[in-house]
Structure formats: C-alpha cells, structure tokens
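Structure first, sequence second, as always.
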C-alpha cells in the first residue's frame, strides 16, 4: 500500500488544537497521505482544515461515516469515551470509533473527569511524537 493510498481520520473537539498539531506533523512526514479531519464543532473543524487536512466535516454523522472509510483513526483517548471532551463525544461517536476496522492511535490525555494512570508526566509534545512514530511504523508495516 502506497502512502497516497492511506486514509487517516483525525478526530478532535473543543478548539481543534490537538488535531491541528497532528495534521501539520503528519503532512510533514507523510505528505501524500489523505487526511480527513472531523471536528465535533465548527471551530475544531476549521482549525484542522487550516492546518492542511485534505477535507473536513463536522458533527456526529461525519464521525460515523468517516470511521467506516479510514485506515487509521487518530485523536485523544476521549474519542472512544461517551460524553468525553466536555460532552462533545456522543455515545454514537464513541461506538463508531471503537468499532471501526481502522487502526486507532489514541493520545492519552487525562482531562474531563478521566484520569489515565501513568501518563500524567508526559508533555503534549512527547505524546504527539509517540503517536506519529506509531503511525509511521504502522504505515511502513503495511507496505
């Protein structure tokens, strides 16, 4: 599978800052990969589109549809937790991400009443670097 045949779904909420950083980094290292950004709100979607996503959409149904088409889904661990991200992740969204055939790369943030043991001392930069390393490994393994 060539890099241009890889479909990466980035899911983010609130202001889309994490998604923006992910997209910029992915485009730098895997420039040919197709990136679909889905925000739970218009601000998150706009931030990710501005960062270089190939296409973008907003809302619950966009997540449900995109999860059926993606090879990889990347986002905060809250994307699989109903009512996470200040309530922006609906139960249907969490279920769609969790049940997708895609490889999920989840970034473990402890927030919104969810504590992920063992990662409290990691910076956002370190977590993003690790997620990108795993994505590149997975893409290489497919080729």
């Amino acid at each position: 599978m060539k890099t241009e045949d890889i479909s990466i779904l980035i899911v983010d909420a609130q202001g889309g800052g994490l998604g923006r950083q992910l997209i910029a980094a992915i485009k730098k290292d895997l420039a040919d990969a197709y990136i679909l950004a889905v925000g739970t709100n218009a601000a998150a979607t706009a931030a990710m589109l501005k960062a270089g996503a190939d296409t973008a959409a907003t809302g619950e149904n966009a997540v449900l549809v995109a999860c059926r088409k993606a090879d990889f889904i990347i986002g905060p661990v809250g994307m699989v937790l109903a009512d996470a991200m200040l309530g922006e992740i609906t139960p249907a969204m969490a279920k769609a991400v969790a049940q997708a055939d895609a490889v999920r790369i989840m970034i473990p943030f402890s927030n919104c009443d969810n504590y992920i043991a063992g990662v409290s001392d990691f910076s956002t930069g370190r977590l993003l670097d690790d997620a990108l390393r795993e994505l590149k490994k997975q893409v290489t393994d497919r080729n």
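Margin note: The longest strand covers residues 7-12.
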